[in-house]
Amino acid sequence: MSRNDSNSSPNRELKHENLAMLCLRLGAFLCFVGWTWVHFYWEGPYGILLWQESTYELAERFGISWDEFVGTGVNDGLVQAWISRVAWLYLACTILTLTVRKNSSMQMIALVGGSGLLIVLSYAKYVGAQRQLPMFVEHGGQMLMPIILVLALRYGIRHRVPTGVAMLAVIATFVGHGSYALGFWPTPANFFGMTTVILGFEYEAAKTFLWVAGVLDFLICVGLFVPALRRPCALYAVVWGLLTAIARPVAGMSWSLIYFGADQFLHEAVLRAPHFLIPIYLYVIWRRPPDEVSETSDDSIELLPLPQLYEIPLAPFD
């Protein structure tokens, strides 16, 4: 191997590691940006957890009346007030994804807390969906995204711990989607709606398309454990994760809507960034190192300068 090649190989590896870390930072950043927009512009989905008699009974023990609990107008009740404050926690986590470094332990702990927020949010959506398990499982990529970033900073971008958690995140996302697509649980109407609007399929064709996609979702999850197939499977996950993310705004946005409907649909793609950025991270770190040039090749032989050649001692003749 020539001297230039030996120097450039570590540089290439460093570039790939930087790219992998960028994917994790960007994935966590966009996920929190999307959910921050939801909390500020709309409202977090926690009402299903809080607007319950058991919750009020707990508040009543602290001397909080019914009027104080539910409020008398918009955003003046205890529940709505606390839901609105959660938005600031998401904004803080968004900033932390850009500032956290390897030695900033407090920021890492705060980001793990951000994953806790996403877990509570996903549980609320799960309860709101009548406790359908895929609704919780499919958020695995989003829930684990900040944790993967923290683990990569703590242990290293190629360490088996962040890699293993990243694989778990991809598998959870695709198993959740695949379970709905195959009809293990009732397929959401928006799956059929997006397929029909974007691809122009009728119901039966859309059902077949979703069934094939569901089968591939499970095959990809298995393929991630096969060394020879993991990079192609990760690449498929990148493409499919990106397409399913942008399908929301593509199907929902329209020239006839105010702001083209971007305020209602664009965040749906942004918060799903982990669905394709985590597979990109895996695809990059699973890259095979460049083949080493044989040490016996002509390019690897370094010729001694002529004066040094004359100084080589010769064995005496017998």
Low-confidence stretches: 291-318
End-to-end Cα distance: 38 Å
The secondary-structure class comes to: mainly alpha
Question: How helix-rich are the residues, as a percent range?
Answer: over 70%
Which of globular, elongated, flat, extended, rod-shaped describes the shape?
globular
Oligomer designation:
single chain
What are the salient characteristics of this protein?
about 325 residues, mainly alpha, about 70% helix, globular
Notes on the protein architecture:
The chain is mainly alpha-helical and 318 residues long. The protein has one domain (10-289). Helices cover 71% and strands 0% of the residues. The protein starts with a helix and ends in an 8-residue tail after the last helix. The relative contact order is 0.12.
Q: Which helices and strands, and how do they pair?
A:
Blueprint: H1 3-41, H2 47-50, H3 53-61, H4 66-70, H5 78-99, H6 105-128, H7 133-137, H8 140-155, H9 160-181, H10 189-199, H11 203-223, H12 230-252, H13 262-270, H14 274-285, H15 306-310
Helix pairs in contact: 1-5, 1-8, 1-13, 1-14, 5-6, 6-8, 8-9, 9-11, 9-14, 10-11, 10-12, 11-12, 12-13, 12-14
Brief account:
It is built from 15 helices and no strands. It has 318 residues and is an all-alpha fold. The chain has one domain.
